[in-house]
Amino acid sequence: MSRPLFLALLVGLVGPFLPVASAQFLYLVRSTPENPGFRLDFQSAPWGASSTNPPKLEVRSVMVVGSDARPTEVAVTKGDGGELLATTDAETAFTTLNYGVSNRGEGQTVLLRYHAKGQPVGGQAVGLPLELTSKGVNGGVVFMATAGGKPLGGVTVTVFEPGSDEPRTVTTDPSGQTPAYAKAGRYAVRVGRFEKAKGEHEGRAYAGVWEYSTLTTEVK
Q: Into how many domains does the chain fold?
């Protein structure tokens, strides 16, 4: 296995889809008040310079949760600048994307799967198999990682704090919770895991799944 490929594996994204130097992930980011809804970003930093120019993604709709707490489907459309938008007044939106099968090296292949969610602080879990939620504490926020509804203790969580394109990594406690953050503003959080699982996607067999879940939220 080459050194660049090995380094890419360390961040969990390999294969022909993206340059190995820049791992990218799927985020749902709240749009502006003039255009209510969510924008889909697929990149290394959730609100970097390339956020309005995502690659071609097979995301045609997202699920949103309104005041009645019942998920409904909202179509994804392309904006004037090429960005992917889901127009909605709902405060919570989420989606799952099976991105594709990638070579892991030594004849092994993995399916890349992304779960993305945008939600206010204190929002409820929506049932994603790998999920992040948030909770307000003492004017700040903590994040919780779960899998199948159960806490994920001792896992690495990547946190983009307000005003920063450089993330911090922290480890969850036994209850699946991160340390608290006090800054007001917009956060993006990511967690990932690998599972051995055989299957097939678009005619390609895979032996495992790299799964990532992201959450964006605003602390006021």
A: 1
